[in-house]
């Protein structure tokens, strides 16, 4: 059996974490064992599911808070359990010392870049120098994410693939959510992301306020959770949207919400290649996204609209309401072929990873 250690921050549901879990669910677990290192375990995260599937979860202190404890702990875990492969999923190069610890412990190392920018630019540049020597293999979710992490070093673009059937549009899924939240006759606008600065929730709420002025049947979902929740709740009250905005917390059925929503809004300041937007296209869910997001995320015709992050909340709102109206006269057809043709089918990616891990472990 090939033992693979996945090193992440947390396994709280999000784009990267869901991608890893999708892969773990599908891969041949008699041949490949995934274990995980995190710096925090939280309620409703994926850790319980990992254990149910036979995986181990190790908790170490955060690298930036206790570098010696993190690096020595990681070295000991790899050495003791004889992991052949260590993958570090990351948005920046600050984690390069972890890959060095993994190499010293005898593992082959993979860095998987999941973002195209990061606020900690100075530290990232320092980490990139070390990255040249500590990553045996380099993967990225997009060309820009690879260039951001590895500069001129060779890397492979590996799409964060999806279980296509899971996210296909379903009237039954939509009705389940409408019934749960008593919104049968409403127009549903939504957002799916953990509550982080990069996701731009404050602007999102301004857009929701403007939509409410134009559409008296509008209700708004925010799926996710995080440290910014108190600020978000405060702004919802300031905008008098308590009766309109539904904060669902962490959910493991985002695919159901995508069938229920009429329009998805995604005004992020920056992203890598957000898996949520690929999932939304499978569900044939119209979306308005910020122009800071790579165009590579658009793999279907007519579903995704790019809007300037500098434009007003009123402009975003008008476009969202128009998309909702247009959708009333259109049927939602699963975009299965377009997604598979673009390389986002999890079944195909699993075959690739099984071959990749087997070759690397030799």
Please render the helix and strand layout as text.
Layout lengths: L1 E6 L7 H12 L5 E7 L8 H6 L4 E3 L7 H15 L3 E6 L5 H9 L3 E6 L7 H14 L2 E4 L2 H8 L5 E2 L6 H4 L3 H10 L6 E6 L8 H14 L3 E6 L5 H10 L6 E5 L4 H7 L2 E4 L8 H8 L4 E4 L13 E4 L5 H15 L8 H6 L4 H15 L2
Parallel strand pairs: 1-2, 1-4, 2-3, 4-5, 5-6, 6-7, 8-9, 8-11, 9-10, 11-12, 12-13
What fraction, in percent, of the residue positions are helical? 40-55%
Fill in the CATH topology of the largest domain. Rossmann fold
Q: How large is the radius of gyration?
A: 21 Å
Q: Looking at the structure, what is the overall shape? A: globular
CATH class of the largest domain: Alpha Beta
Tell me the CATH superfamily of the largest domain. Glycogen Phosphorylase B
Give me the strand/helix succession: EHEHEHEHEHEHEHHEHEHEHEHEEHHH
Task: Report the span from N to C terminus.
Answer: 12 Å
CATH hierarchy: architecture of the largest domain: 3-Layer(aba) Sandwich
What average pLDDT do the residues reach?
Answer: 92
Class by helix and strand content? Answer: alpha/beta
The largest sheet is: 7 strands, parallel
The low-confidence parts are none
Strand arrangement within the widest β-sheet reads 3-2-1-4-5-6-7
Supply the number of helical segments: 15
Number of domains: 2
The share of residues in extended strands comes to: 15-25%
What's the β-strand tally?
13
Question: Could you explain how this protein is built, in words?
Answer:
This protein has 362 residues and is of the alpha/beta class. The chain has 2 domains: 2-161 and 345-360, Rossmann fold (3-Layer(aba) Sandwich), CATH 3.40.50.2000; 164-341, Glycogen Phosphorylase B (Rossmann fold, 3-Layer(aba) Sandwich), CATH 3.40.50. The chain contains 15 helices and 13 strands. A 7-stranded parallel sheet has the order 3-2-1-4-5-6-7. A 6-stranded parallel sheet has the order 10-9-8-11-12-13, sandwiched between helices. The longest helix has 15 residues, at 67-81. The N and C termini lie close together (12 Å). The relative contact order is 0.12. The model has no long low-confidence stretch (mean pLDDT 92).
